[in-house]
Amino acid sequence: MAKRGRIYRRTKKDPITGERVEVGPYKVQLWINGRDHRQSSHSEKREVAEKLLTKLLAAKDAGTLTDATTKPLRFKDLQAAIELEYRLKQNKSLDRMQDAFQALGTTFEGSKTNAITKQRLKEYVTERLEAGKAPATVLYELRMLRYAFKLVELPCPPLPTIEVNNVRRNFFEPHEFQTMVKHLPVYLRPVMTAAFLMGWRTQSELLPLQWKHVDFNSGVITLPTGSTKNGEGRAYPFGKFPELVALFHARWQEREDLQRARGIVIPWVFFRVEKTAVKPIKSYTTAWNNARIKAGLSDRWVHDFRRCGARSLRQAGVEESVAMGLLGQKTPSMYRRYDIVDLKDLTVGVEKLAAFHAHQAGLRDNYGTVTPLPIPTKKENHG
Fold first, then answer.
1. Is domain 174-338 in CATH 1.10.443.10, yes or no?
2. Side-chain half-sphere of 242: how many Cα atoms within 13 Å?
3. pLDDT in tens, 366-380
């Protein structure tokens, strides 16, 4: 009977007992056209290796398994597979994924996939964290690697555990925002005000906003499908928000004045005016960093406006599902990451609780008589 295949593990001698013990991941062995082929399952679970062997034998029986198809892939093949996937799906985070693989490449460039082991990943994580990289950044890099393994249909080695605490903390109180705005360049003040009031993403949703998306008659701003981070369209009925109505009317009037004066067409809602041109706002990093330092708010970021929006919606009593729709959050858990409860909110909560107990000042007995709440005496407290 011809050999079909087998599953095995490497063995080594135990220094204490002297017996040989199995170590490392399970491997599969089969024969292709009479030639011995071995491949790691990258797992210490036998059932993973059994599935791999079954898959290889099925491909062999179908005539699709050759030496070429079982040739070990390399890190560059993983990168090529995930880049192709991102481009086909037109993922907006392509640049971020490429940055992740550039970081991974400093360690794994030129490596075969079966050489990317759990131990090497642990060493990679240690080096990245010691270099000062945020745990969330390193975890994202590992997840991109795992996704690439999935795309090439290879088992990914176990990923090291990384503790990440990325709950959003900072937000602006109204007086802090007013202080911040005073130190921003004039052209940035309208868009940052809109971000503070609406809670929309500044870089990807407000800066690209054009007048064709703003309908003054219906009082609605519409983002078309594919223009947002999650790819879904969104509507914001700003006509019911006087501050926003005033802001967008001011932007419209400035745009009209510039178009008449310069004989040009300005499609953007938010723009910057230069001596020879009117341009969309592409970047604000330097201006923002300078402003937050001058305002004494060095720990504040533009993304904090998302938290401001979520918090304001909750404090205004807006239903969670409606708030998620306005902010563009797909899941309640994502919304709650931005919905910050601070000490002021807790104080209000305790005040409401105290008022409740003041109203319920006593307990009624079976006869309808109000009985005072039992408060222990000093003697009872101390025995």
1. yes
2. 0
3. 444 444 545 555 555
